[in-house]
Amino acid sequence: VPPMATAEKPIEWLAEKEFDFGDIAPQKPVQHAFQFKNKGTEPIVIETVRTSCGCTGSTWDETPILPDSIG
């Protein structure tokens, strides 16, 4: 499930907004990165990420994405 953005933080997705790993073997690490461009005038900070299954976890960078930058 992609990082969330609020209405006042306009973004342009540079790739898919959702990703399905399919069946994942137990204890097998997997990863996926979502890319977007900050089209707003203020920095964006990703504050939360949701997965569609409670059996998976997520990590993300909390560094602000500056206007006209890619995160």
Keywords, separated by commas or semicolons:
little secondary structure; 71 residues
Number of strands: 2
Beta-strand content estimate: 5-15%
Structural class: little secondary structure
Strand order of the largest sheet: 1-2
Q: Detail the poorly predicted runs.
A: none
Mean pLDDT: 84
Percentage of residues in helical conformation: under 10%
Give the CA-CA distance, first to last residue.
16 Å
Chart the SSEs and their pairings.
Elements: E1 11-13, E2 36-38
Describe the overall structure.
The protein starts with 10 loop residues before the first strand and ends in a 33-residue tail after the last strand. The model has no long low-confidence stretch (mean pLDDT 84). The protein has 71 residues and is low in regular secondary structure. It contains no helices and 2 strands. The protein has strands at residues 11-13, 36-38. Strands 1-2 form a two-stranded antiparallel ribbon.
